[in-house]
Write a structure and sequence with these properties.
This protein is mainly alpha-helical. It has helices spanning 16-29, 41-44, 51-67, 85-94, 99-103, 106-113, 120-123, 125-134, 148-165, 205-213, 231-237, 242-253, 259-285, 288-317, and strands at residues 3-8, 34-39, 76-79, 140-142, 173-175. Strands 1-2-3 form a three-stranded parallel sheet. Strands 4-5 form a two-stranded parallel ribbon. Bound molecules: adenosine-5'-diphosphate and tryptophan. Tryptophan binds next to β1 and α8.
Length: 326
Amino acid sequence: MKRVLSGIQPSGDLHLGNYFGMMSRMIKYQEQNDLFCFIVNYHALTTIRDKDLLVSNTLNAAMDFIALGLDPEKSTFWIQSDVPQVCESTWLLSNVVNLGLLDRATSYKDKLARGMTANVGLYSYPILMASDILLFGGEIVPVGKDQKQHLEMTRDIAIRFNKIFGEVFIVPEPDIEESNQLVPGIDGQKMSKSYGNMIPIFGSEKSIRKQFMSIVTDSTEIDEPKDTDTPLFQLYSLFLDEGEKIELAERFKTPGLRYGDIKKELYECFWAQFEPFREKREYLSNHKDFVIKKLIEGSEKAGAVADTYLQNAREAMGLNYGDIRV
Ligand code: ADP
Ligand code: TRP
């Protein structure tokens, strides 16, 4: 049984890209592995500066995950800031990280290019992420392709720490699924909370329908074959098995297909897959105390694991001087 671990930022409503890129795999992993999953609200501080928004996003992300099938009894599920030991280990790890490593981070460079101010939190984001993974002994880390470099940095940090101070941390393996690497948004760019092109999983029926009907298409005439290398085809494929994908490709190639009909079908597929989770989501939003209780229990389990790794790191670095309490 492997320890599978990943986190997601509570930076807005969760969408189909998050679901197919990471969440659905996490939920499957819980059956046969020791799953550790958390909502990274410390990381979200790099972009959110509104107390109420962060609180509601954090709880919503947790409720979304549970509604979609993450079982807090089978896995360890918590809110990052409830295990503040990650901040101490971020400091310990930051002493083996050269500036060059952080300077190369493409995600940081992208954010600067989009006009964000470079503060230290944003710059050292990858060290906090490494700490999230190493402090809980994560062995396998399921993420979308955009997190690949952060995972490589985590591995570098673990290897470097172990080399200098002795074998304390497990060097994790990334788990990136080839087929759903990048789910397109309704405009054909990567689906993202920050691009306004997403299809939320738990939005209102009307807004979700509107998003599906707005998926960008080309001006190919009805009596011409249609291109399958398009967001409409790719989004529909997420809901199909291999045989069904081949059938859909045939329909695209056969003249007579109307994009509007395909969009309606796709909306029906979405609805059939996600409607059953809406009732549970509704229930959870009316029972927030239950959710919070489960998250606290999760943080206690996670905290116990963190304490062991942290003590080993402190010991290895020489911070536990002549401790008479042992
Ligand atoms: P966003 O870009 O919407 O802010 P996050 O950065 O919070 O999403 O990503 C959370 C998880 O979902 C990560 O593992 C990320 O790789 C994955 N993910 C996000 N968007 C997509 C997408 N369009 N396709 C596939 N995976 C995605
Ligand atoms: N940086 C990740 C993202 O934006 C979120 C994250 C934080 C994470 N800590 C993590 C993912 C640890 C995996 C493991 O998606």
